[in-house]
Specification:
The chain has 293 residues and is mostly helical. Helix content is 59%, strand content 1%. It is built from 14 helices and 2 strands; from the N terminus they run H-H-H-H-H-H-H-H-H-H-H-E-E-H-H-H. Strands 1-2 form a two-stranded parallel sheet. Helix 1 (2-19) runs antiparallel to helix 2, helix 4 (76-93) packs antiparallel against helix 5 and helix 6 (112-125) packs antiparallel against helix 9. The longest helix is centred in the middle third of the chain and has 21 residues, at 138-158. 46% of the residues are buried. Mean pLDDT is 80; it is low at 228-238, 244-285 and 287-293.
Length: 293
């Protein structure tokens, strides 16, 4: 709920910018409100505080998935999001609404990274062939349900079949739970990366296993982009290969951006409405179930 309200602020900011590009104050206030909700009030000016909002989730997952920035220890995805949010604020303040729209699209993609990481982690922790023996049980099921259902509207717009597989395995009422296994859930998520506008490098690999507790877990290795197609592993520990052919009704993220650009040139307000539909993930069943979590 917090994430989607934060993104709603950005959409409202773009609408205000488009209607009054020479009066940027209302649009900038909305843009800043979006980030305030995304980061929370406990992160501090340097983003290294003990926050409880969406920003904190990325920082919590980055050491587990080896996706922290060198030096600061901040999640790389948070660095990219803050940079895009900052560029967007400048664009809005200068009445460059189209440039702000491009930054919005970057933010929209990048906020899915920590949700994907969290979904993969909880799928593994609730699978008897994964980290089930180390987990608490019901807590991981509840967390997996919450994280997966937050990102499912985006997944469903990319590939309904992938979304359905994830839902069937991670809905809290599933019986048996994780019936297809964490590898199938991971593969379904990976098949939508290009559509979501994220990469295997963004998501990383989960390294919480072995004697040190910092070795890559079997089956949770980093996938690899491959431009000519997608194929998964054979159920062993081999890396998944993610490419452009992600199957069943998905749309390409680049195409989505192009459509948004054309829509802006034809009618700015219509383009913003399209972005809003994409953001809210109007996928019927998944959106309804998400609000019930």
């Amino acid at each position: 709920v917090v994430l989607h309200r934060s993104l709603q602020y950005l959409h409202d900011s773009l609408s205000a910018c488009a209607s009054k590009p020479h009066s940027p104050s209302p649009a900038l206030a909305l843009w800043d409100s979006g980030f305030a909700l995304f980061s929370g009030s406990m992160e501090g000016q340097d983003g290294q505080g003990g926050g409880k909002s969406v920003y904190a989730l990325s920082d919590k997952r980055c050491p587990q998935f080896r996706t922290c920035t060198v030096g600061s220890g901040l999640a790389a995805v948070n660095v990219r999001i803050v940079e895009a949010w900052t560029r967007g604020a400048t664009a809005v303040s200068e009445g460059r609404c189209f440039d702000a729209l491009l930054e919005y699209d970057i933010i929209l993609s990048q906020v899915t990274v920590s949700l994907v990481q969290a979904t993969i982690r909880e799928a593994w922790e609730t699978d008897i062939d994964g980290g089930w023996i180390l987990a608490d049980g019901l807590i991981e099921r509840a967390e997996g349900n919450g994280y997966s259902f937050t990102v499912l509207p985006w997944i469903a717009q990319c590939d309904q079949a992938a979304a359905e597989l994830i839902r069937e395995n991670m809905v809290l009422s599933a019986d048996p739970y994780m019936k297809d296994g964490f590898r199938a859930v991971k593969k379904a998520l990976e098949s939508t990366y290009q559509c979501l506008g994220i990469t295997c490098e963004d998501v990383g690999e989960m390294a919480v296993c072995g004697n040190t507790g910092h070795e890559v877990c079997f089956g949770l290795e980093k996938c690899v982009e491959f431009v000519d197609g997608y194929s998964g592993d054979d159920g062993g520990g081999a890396e998944d290969v993610v490419g452009s052919d992600v199957g069943g009704g998905g749309y390409n993220a680049v195409l989505a951006i192009a459509i948004a650009i054309v829509g802006w040139l034809v009618a700015g307000v219509a383009s913003l409405a399209a972005c809003n539909n994409r953001k809210r993930g109007k996928s019927g069943e998944y959106t309804k179930e998400m609000t019930a979590v």
